[in-house]
User: Which sequence fits this backbone?
């Protein structure tokens, strides 16, 4: 929901998604081209600054959105740095710290961080419908994009259904004790399964009624100054990539 | 307002589970008319609507548009569905897209129109339902009444000749109902044939030119509201008569005749106006 909120309210909401997409892509290319962890960190910093200062996303919200993926990154870095070995000669478990591989691990994790900020930039500045239409222009298969469209919309419909059902259950003490909660939760899941089935049928009929015979086609948003925006974004992205080539 | 635009000839429909949802219904919808379809839950209103748009095909009998039987081929359906616009009851089961503008564009895009034409139609349709300011908003941030209006816009953008609405007033508050009535009046003035399924007898009595009453899949009555809705069998099927009609009749029993050149009041406002006129008349005498 936080991502959603930022995507619709940020300063660059009405900048062409092609511009934002190419900037994000340049960021990822730069992340891979970065020769040292320091350069990769610099790229990450630039991308985060673009999101926070450029698009005007509140820093606290940025951190809250970034927290879960950062946690995953931390976990994987730890698993790379620390190795548990049970094959020691005395039968015990020994902990190894990766010594000679440390520079490589630093390189990989900083690179991941830069990629993460590049993706966050796109996700926080561009509403999903825009991203989908961007992917459509990149000739991604229709089926995949239709699934994305429907998933995105039904996410909200179903979360509302979950909320309503849970409220109704709580109103009749459905979550009073642990046993009752488990039963209510089962009821909720069962009820939701039926709703999903009924809704998919209703969607199908509604689509037919509006003359649909396959792919879901919608009008794409038009953007003012998009050519200019794309040039600026591409130039900024180019500078990032150039930085990685110049810096060690 | 003459000439038929849509005919049902002995249309029957049996669902796969064996229920007879429609049982040899024959009726005519007049071009440019406002028709209200009434009947208790499960009477077959929605099933009939699904036939009008070609989603369901009658088990027996046939439907005709301007006297020609419906063509159920792919091309025929494309044509029919762009001429008969169907708006369902629950907005959340017919809005697929994330943003308002996108969703309204769905029908015209399916019709294969050029982008510039689609863009124009979408803006016009949103303007007609008073949602032009919300074009870029995500659908899930709209209120229930706004979602209903977006659904109507989605069908209007296809520029149909006939607009079919399944319970459009259900779940709307009084002011939203008034806004909807204003939209319907506008469409009527523009010549749109409108068919509405509703449980709101008072709305049907005030709005419709024709009423259709269904009971257990059968056509119970079809005609002008002043006659049909006061019939005893219709009253027992629907469980009530329009309030305005009841009051008018009670007043006439105590000697107050609200008839104005033979025209009886049909809506609350008309009733109040007639009572005021009557009071003034007595005051003058």
Assistant:
């Amino acid at each position: 929901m936080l991502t959603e909120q930022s995507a619709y309210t940020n300063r660059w909401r009405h900048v062409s998604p092609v511009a934002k997409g190419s900037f994000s892509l340049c960021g990822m290319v730069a992340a891979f081209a970065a020769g040292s962890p320091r350069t990769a960190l610099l790229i990450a910093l630039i991308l985060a600054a673009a999101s926070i200062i450029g698009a005007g996303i509140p820093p606290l919200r940025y951190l809250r959105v970034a927290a879960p993926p950062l946690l995953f990154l931390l976990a994987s870095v730890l698993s790379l740095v620390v190795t548990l070995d049970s094959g020691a000669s005395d039968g015990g478990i020994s902990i190894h710290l990766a010594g000679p591989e440390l520079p490589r691990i630093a390189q990989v994790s900083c690179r991941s961080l830069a990629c993460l900020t590049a993706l966050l930039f796109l996700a926080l500045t561009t509403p999903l419908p825009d991203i989908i239409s961007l992917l459509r222009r990149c000739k991604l298969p229709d089926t995949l994009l239709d699934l994305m469209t429907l998933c995105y919309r039904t996410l909200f419909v179903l979360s509302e259904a979950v909320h309503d059902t849970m409220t109704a259950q709580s109103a009749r003490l459905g979550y009073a004790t642990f046993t009752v909660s488990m039963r209510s939760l089962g009821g909720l899941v069962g009820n939701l399964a039926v709703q999903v089935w009924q809704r998919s049928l209703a969607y199908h009929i509604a689509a037919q009624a509006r003359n649909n015979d396959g792919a879901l086609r919608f009008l794409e948003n038009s953007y003012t100054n998009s050519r200019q925006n794309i040039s600026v974004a591409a130039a900024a992205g180019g500078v990032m990539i150039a930085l990685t080539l110049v810096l060690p | 307002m003459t000439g038929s635009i849509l005919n049902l000839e002995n249309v029957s429909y049996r669902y796969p589970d064996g229920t007879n949802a429609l049982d040899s219904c024959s009726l005519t919808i007049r071009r440019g008319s406002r028709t209200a379809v009434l009947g208790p839950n499960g009477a077959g209103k929605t099933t009939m609507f699904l036939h009008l748009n070609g989603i369901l095909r009658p088990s027996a009998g046939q439907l005709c548009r301007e006297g020609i039987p419906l063509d159920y081929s792919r091309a025929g359906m494309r044509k029919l569905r762009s001429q008969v616009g169907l708006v369902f009851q629950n907005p959340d089961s017919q809005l697929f897209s994330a943003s308002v503008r996108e969703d309204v564009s769905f029908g015209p895009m399916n019709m294969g129109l050029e982008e510039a034409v689609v863009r124009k139609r979408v803006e016009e349709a949103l303007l007609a339902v008073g949602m032009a300011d919300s074009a870029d908003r995500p659908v899930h941030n709209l209120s229930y009444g706004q979602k209903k209006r977006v659904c109507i816009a989605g069908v209007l953008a296809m520029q149909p000749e006939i607009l079919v609405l399944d319970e459009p007033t259900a779940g709307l508050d009084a002011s939203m109902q008034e806004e909807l009535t204003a939209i319907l009046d506008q469409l009527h003035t523009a010549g749109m044939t409108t068919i509405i399924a509703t449980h709101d007898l008072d709305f049907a009595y005030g709005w419709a030119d024709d009423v259709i009453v269904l009971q257990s899949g059968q056509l119970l009555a079809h005609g002008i509201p002043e006659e049909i809705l006061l019939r005893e069998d219709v009253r027992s099927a629907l469980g009530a008569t329009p309030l305005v009609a009841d009051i008018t009749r009670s007043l006439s029993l105590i000697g107050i005749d609200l008839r104005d050149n033979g025209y009886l009041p049909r809506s609350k406002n008309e009733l109040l106006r007639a009572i005021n006129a009557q009071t003034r008349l007595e005051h003058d005498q």
